[in-house]
Amino acid sequence: MSGHSKWSQIKRQKGSNDAKRGQLFTRLGREIAVAAREGGGDVNANFRLRLAVQRARESNMPLDNVERAIKRGIGGGESGDLDEINYEGYGPGGAAILVQVMTDNRNRTVGEVRSVLNKHGGTLGESGSVAWQFEDRGVITVALNGDNAEEIELAAIDAGAIDVSAGDDTIEVLTEPADLEAVRQALESTKAEIVNAERSLVASTTMALDGKQATQMLRLIDKLEDLDDVQKVYSNVEISDEDMEAYEG
After folding, report:
1. Which domains does the chain have, with CATH numbers?
2. How far apart are CA 129 and CA 13, in angstroms?
């Protein structure tokens, strides 16, 4: 299983246990507002907005919150003050880290990101230092539920997927960003259970961490995600099931 697949699994587990629903809804609302600001409030014409709204629904975000976020984006307001920035750096063992933020205060946010990195075995890098290691991809996670994995894989490839990887209970499908929706719809038409579909940054090559470094890396990513301005954290690490279970335990 690729490093991205492994981290997607971690993210799903974290999401299902996340008690900070207010923080989650804030992040989703910011993404919706900025997507509406950039591409308009019509979910049928604005692919980024459609994905953001789908994620909000999957997280049980109230419809009123979604509609208010779209209106904020169209009308300016709070969303007009938010800048989207990627911070790049290194974690334990030299692992690549890319932190996506939305902030109304760059100085505050970069200070917070740098502080967390320094405290947990990482360093902040220059712009471009690790971004070249990641590719913009559509990522679809499909639950197997006893289904025939080969049939799902073939359906994904026929619909335009560029890579498919199977785990014990899920299949992860990679697409070009522009093909994400078409492949998702094709898989849904086969009655496959779509666990998640989103645009993501996928590491072109991965590195393995284990033991103490794996624990440090997981703690570092958790601390970065706890920051209010952080939307997503990406890395190129592979972590074993055993080390992840030890960390979660």
Report:
1. 3-81 (1.10.10.200), 83-132+205-240 (3.30.70.980), 134-203 (3.30.70.980)
2. 30
